[in-house]
Every structure is written in C-alpha cells, then in structure tokens.
Protein 1
Amino acid sequence: MISDFCDNLTESPIGIYVHVPFCAFRCAYCAFYKAVPSRATIESYIKTLKVEWDLRYRGESVGTIFWGGGTPSILSAKQLEDMRHIFPDEMPFLKEWTVECSPLTITKDRLAAMRDIGVTRISIGVETFDEKLLKTLNRRQTLWQTLEAYELARNFSFDVNLDLMFAVPGQRLRQWEMDLRQAVALRPEHLSTYCLTMEEETAFAARHKDKIPPAERGWERFHGLAGETLTKAGYQHYEVSNFAQPGKQCLHNVRIWQMNDWLGIGPAAASQYNGRRFKNISDLNRWMCGILAGAACEEDICAVDANLLVQDAIIFGLRTRTGIHLPESMNNRNMDACLRLFKFWCEQGLMECKKSVYYPTERGLLLADALAVEILGTFDNPVRPKV
Ligand code: SF4
C-alpha cells in the first residue's frame, strides 16, 4: 500500500530495466523497428551498457531485473552471457529476472544460457493464436511455432507470461474468446492482455484505422471478456492488463507501480532513480556515442518528491488490486478531495473499502483511466517541477 512504500523507499532493493532495441523484423503496427543488427553493433551496444551501468549505478541491492525491447531474445546465447557481466557477481536480494522473447527466437541454446545466468521468468509475445490475425499484424510466427516455443520454455522450468493483444483490425469477440481459452489451456503463470495501440506514423494505422472498434464500444467488451474468462479460470486480475496465478504477479512491475526506484539502462530506457525521473535518448547511435564519451544522454528530467510519489501511487493504485491507503502526510485538501471521490465511487460499485484501504472493483479497473483523470483534477499541486 502507498503508505508502506513511502516509508521504505530508501531501503527497498531497486529494479533494473535494460532496453534491448533490436528486432528481427518489423511488426506492421509498430513504429519502433530497427534494422536487424550486425554482430558488431550488438557487441558495441553491450559494451556501452556496461559503461552506462558503471556511470549510473550507486551500489544498491538489486531486487528485480527486466530485459525488454525490442526483442532481447534476438541476442545469441553468448551475447546473453556477456550481458550478465554488466551486473554485480552477487545479487543476494534478487527475486525475479524476466526476459521478453518472441516465439521465433526461443531456442534451446538461448534458454539454457538464460537459465545459467539466473533468469527466472520468460515473457512471450504471442499476441494472438489466430493465424489470420497474425498475418494482419505481420507477425511471422505460426500457431505451431508459438506452441513449440512455449513447450520449450516449460522444459526449462521458467515461469512464463504470455502477451495477448485485442482490438486487432478485423478481430471478432469470438476470436478473442478463443485466444483467451487457448491461453488458459496452456496454464502459464501469468497473462498480459493489451489493447492494440495504433501508432499514427505507421502505414498499418493508415490502412486500418476505420476497422478498429471505437473505444466506447469495442474496448470495454474485449477487456471485460478477458476479466471474466481469466478470473473464472483461477487467475487473479491484479492490474488492469495483468492476470496471474496466486503468488505469480510480475514483481518488477508491481514494485514500479508502488513507486519503488528502478534504474533503466539502454537507449529509450526510463528511470526513477536517486531523486529523479528521466529517460535515455531513444537513438541507438547517439546513445552509444554519448555514453562512451561520458555524457548522461537523458531527457524528460523531473525531480521526484514525496508529493509526486503519493499522487502517482494513487493513480497507479486505481489500476491495481493492491489497495490505496491514503498516507497521513498528504495535505488536508487533497486528502478530503480523494476521500470524497473514493466514497462516491464505493457507492457506484467502482471501489470497495476494507479497514480504510480502498480497492478498485472489477468494474472500477475497467474505468481506471477515467477515474485517474477525475482524481488528478482534484489535486492541489499536480505540477511536476523540472530539475
Ligand atoms: S512489436 Fe515488438 S517485436 Fe514487433 S517490431 Fe515492435 S518492438 Fe519489435
């Protein structure tokens, strides 16, 4: 709960995020794509990560690691092992280490390397099991390749998350239901369900924008069906887009939503670290040249104070089932405004209160973004000071 986080911020082990900005090919809907990297580019990238780590890291205990992208599993087994040497040899407080993988890059060699370096959790970008929708998205995997990749990850005893996507052009509710059922049949520890975001600058968006169900009609029905199907199957709906078997929540993300510090390295990686939030510049070459020359390569810098942490913990609290306990340190006006809204939302069935802790209901989670906008409007001082 919020009050616990604010008390423990300095002592908690930090999370580490590493952004791996490489993909083997372009998915139609994504504006991110970089060309397939050469071995030399990946080697320079790993060398620069090490330099950035030495520049930024201040010796705290590491609690969680998350390698995301892009497609971290595009790296070879040897390159994955080289990435391990960035971090301290001993990490006694490390509880979870996740690597994002695409089904086509999951091989025995890579999984063995991941297991040997200490990875505990694999997140697989399934998106959909429907072959036709995979083609629409220009995802190269087939259903059978996805199932094979999943089995392989299972043989190595990793905890597995499957990413699923809804609101794909042409997708019917029935197809979404089939995806959910197929995912449940595999019994992964964790499932993430995302609404497809149309990146305006892609040709895909231009081609399909009229086929996406409008948010007010389509989004809620797809999202509601995910909640219904997955909770019935025994998954806990612990965050708007995330479902887990008991005890299998993504610790790294939970700790970030609870406003614990994390350090992000690699181009475009964001951090909340050492009293500031900032983002690394997104350009791979500029990031490499800058970091190797000893420059910070940061943008969007913002000072973090207790007021900001409390506000953001409330906003993220509306998206999770962890519960919101308003800290006594909050100013009276903000506290009164929050309580008034929370009580109103309880009457509307959007929240419930147990022992002064407020929890969003399933219906409240569906409306988390709208509730966040409403509550932000009540805060006295929502302005974020620039450093
Ligand atoms: S969706 Fe993911 S895998 Fe596909 S191009 Fe974008 S970052 Fe790469």
Note: The longest helix spans residues 39-56.
Protein 2
Amino acid sequence: MIRVWLFLLTASSIFGQSFNDYDLKPHNYFGAPLKDPMSRFLERLDASGEELQEANGKPLVKRMLDELEIPVTSQVLVFTKTSLQRRAVNPKNPRALYFNEDVYLGWMPNGRIEITSMDPDLGGIFYFQRPLDQTNRPLFYREENCLGCHAGSATNFLPGLLARSVYPDENGRNLKSVVTFDRSGHQVPFNERWGGWYVTGYHGEVRHLGNALASGGRRAPVMETKGNANRESLEDYFDSDLHLRPDSDVLALLLLDHQISMHHWIMEAHYRVRQGLHDAGIEGRSRDDLRKIDDYSRSELESCLDKFMRYLVFADEASLGPETWKGAGAYRENFLANRKTDSKGRSLKDLRMTERIFDYRCSYMIYSKSFQALPGPLKEEIYHRLYRGLVVDGAAAKGFEHLDGDEKIAMAEILRATLPELAAYWETLVAG
Ligand code: HEC
C-alpha cells in the first residue's frame, strides 16, 4: 500500500499536471469565458429578451439549425442505443445528427435536443434541452453528464466528439462493437464503418455495415452488406415522416467521420501545447518556444503532431474505390457554399469522390475557428511542417508520400492564396 502511494506521489511530482486535466488551470474548462456558437447564441437571445416560442420537436430543431447556421441537408441518422437518450432511439425512430464546421446537433422524435458546440479553446461544450414536460427551467442548459461519455478514452479524456460502429440487434441494442474500430476517422476501412447508422447514396462496389441489423447473436454477429448497399431511400427500414428529411447522406457521413477526428487532433494538440507552455512558464511566441517544453511532454507532443499532420493531409484515408460516389441529398451544395478558392478557382473543398474524397488533400478544417485559435507557436509549427512537406522536401517528405508532385504544388498554391497567415509565415521561410 505504502509503495503504491509512494509511486503515485513520485509520478505526479515528476509529470506534474496532465495535459488532459481539462477542468484545471490553464484550461479551466468550467470557468473560462465561452466563445462557441451555441453559447454566443444564448447570450444574444438573453440580451434580446426574446424567448424561443417554437414548439418542441421539428419547429424548435429547425429554428436551432437556422440560428446555428447548420444546413438541414447535413442530416445523418444513427439508430443504435449508444448515446444518452437510449430509450427514445431504435431502428424505427433513429437519432438525427446535423453539423457544420463548428457545431453538432442531435435530436430524435419524442426526444430532447443535444448540442455539442466547439469552443475554439476548450473543445466541445455540451448543451441539453430541458425535459419536454418542464417549462419552468431554461430551455437549454449546460450538462456535465455528457462528459461521462464525451470525455472518455475515445477522446483521450478531453471533451470531444464520438462515433461508434456496432452490430445492432432489431431493437437498436449494441450486440458488439466492431472490434478494430478505435477512433472514428477517414482512415477506418469502410467494411468496419457505419454499423448502426443509416446510409443513403451511391458508393459503387464498396461495402459498409450501415442499414443492417445483425443476426447470429453476440458471439458471431453477421451483417448483410450487399442488399443494404447503394440505397436511394430508407423507406424499407422506417417511416421518416417524423424526421426533417428522409435521408442519411453518404457524403455527410464521410465528412462527419473526417471532422470528428480532425477536431480531436486540433483539440489534443491545443491542450498539450497550452499545458506545456504553462508548465514552462512562458507565453510562447514562435515555434522555437515549443522546445522549452519539458522533455517528457515534448516527446508526447511530437507524437501527437505526427498523427495530426498525417490526418490533416489524409495520409491514411480509406479508399473509395474506382467508382464515383454520389450523395443522395442536396448537402453537397451547402458544404461547398463557403469554399475558399485560389485564382484558378481551386479549393480544399473540391470533391473528387473517386478513390478519395478530395482533389487536394489538406483538410478544409484548417480554416475552422478551432484550428485558427491554436496557440501561435503551434500554428507556426504546423505551417512549417506543411512547407517542408509540400515545398521543400520533395518525394522524401515523411507523411506526405501519398501525394504526387502536382498535387503538392496545387495544395501549396491553394494554401498560399486562401490562408494569409500561412502565406506570410512561408514568406519569412523563403526570405530566410
Ligand atoms: C452514454 C454515452 C453518451 C452520453 C452520456 C452522451 N453521449 Fe453524445 N454521443 C454518444 C455517442 C456514442 C455518439 C455517436 C453517435 C451515436 O452513437 O449516437 C454521440 C454523439 C453525439 C453528438 C453528435 C456529434 C458527435 O459527437 O458525434 C452530439 C451533438 C452529442 N452526442 C451530444 C451529447 C450531449 C449534449 C450529451 C449530454 C446532454 C451527450 N451527448 C451525452 C454517447 C453519449
């Protein structure tokens, strides 16, 4: 017993506070002023004195999507009892998720609205609608219980986003997780993805676990993949009258998967650098200051950044195969609406949808508020690595091997033209 205590004491005095103690300084998750879209909306509402009059259900969901600028076409549907409102979700009453680049909203008929709003400094801020039969409380409130799942091992104990792929039974219960499915992301092979989700759209010969119920029991669950592939409509599965839309667009699913992990890496790197600089007692001006972080934290940061960079440039993206995927809905247009183009009209959002999602493989999330709020030294380090990988190191660039010369040139041109801060930093490297 004494030995255990001694070990704990020594460990904590060597390592100090862990980077993911999000409620402590310097992160201060529960005390810091909030800058996420939902908190801002609630402040605006409060200042205006207006009370939301929309009826529960569809009218209120629509109003919230409008206020948070989330396109309704981003709808994806998940029908497993893997989240908070277990009782309300099942294959006949799936949970709808909607999202843009900063905020995610979940809802199901006869359920309450759940919102994860990304604060650029803190990660996910979780809001829950009050119980449907209680009208004397604020309509939305910040709920700590969400962290029980949303700040667990899947997010490295930071407040973040989740996705799971499971073998569901006919009640939407999870018989078994898909074994190798660790963290959601564009690297997960399609034959492991979307168990417990509905999927509409065309995806050629590729097979996924969506739209299917498992048979064969817990030990050896089996999913029918062929008959459930390339579905234009979900009418064979459930009656969608109670939802805002009848589909679960495959493009929206691809991008949700991509974003969940991108948000994760942005947040993890942010927390690590903030903690490291705080422990070193410096503010941090340039990437050189990252060297002043203690050895142990720096080597962990290094390995986090290697994964971050691979993910940012889609190094391990699962192949979409030779056929061109097509979403069923109008989501594509909404997704492209805020694309930033260079003088040749190219952008990081240009969709290829054959073999891979994008023409130019640097995530558009580089423009997101979460990325742009990263500490200066960290952004400089990332811009530096992009410069080496795309411009200087040629074919030898580690983590960029999957990109050919033309794509690298195009990516560098687009980044220069659309991200002034990166362009300015790259100028100093050229000059030096
Ligand atoms: C029992 C674990 C659990 C709890 C508690 C929980 N969630 Fe989730 N949440 C999940 C899982 C798992 C997903 C992935 C989609 C799914 O399986 O439904 C998810 C997905 C979401 C999404 C879609 C974005 C994303 O992360 O994929 C939102 C929004 C969300 N949850 C909000 C909340 C809010 C707000 C609360 C608290 C009021 C909450 N959740 C509590 C497990 C949970």
Note: Residues 1-14 have pLDDT under 50 and may be disordered.
